[in-house]
Specification:
Blueprint: E1 2-5, H1 8-14, E2 20-22, H2 30-40, E3 60-64, E4 67-68, H3 80-83, E5 89-93
Parallel strand pairs: 1-5
Antiparallel strand pairs: 1-2, 3-4, 3-5
């Protein structure tokens, strides 16, 4: 079971409270987790990554185990703690401005 923490605006859109728990088939990667998330919550399609290019939206970041995984390959295996459910994969809205 993979745990995912979404920012408040995406939790509201998906109509969930707290963490989302997902069953993910095959290798546990960012792509696989986001595919499962969008499959379970179709209203999130296009909010975390572009629907055509599948690239992460610029103002969203992905963290796990206190590490920014935003620039890692979407097909790189996630840390063991995420794969075992000990730690969540965190989708976080990035701060911008001046």
């Amino acid at each position: 079971m993979i745990r995912v923490v979404l920012p408040a605006h995406l939790r509201t859109l998906a109509r969930v409270d707290g963490e989302v728990k997902l069953d993910v088939e095959g290798p546990i990667t960012q792509r696989a987790v986001l595919d499962a998330l969008e499959s379970s919550y179709p209203m999130l399609r296009g909010t975390i990554r572009d629907q055509v290019t599948q690239k992460r939206r610029a103002f969203l970041r992905v963290f796990a185990c206190e590490e920014d995984l935003s620039h890692e390959s979407p097909d790189a295996p996630l840390p063991d703690a995420v794969r075992t459910g000990a730690e969540p994969l965190i989708v976080l809205g990035a701060m911008a401005g001046g």
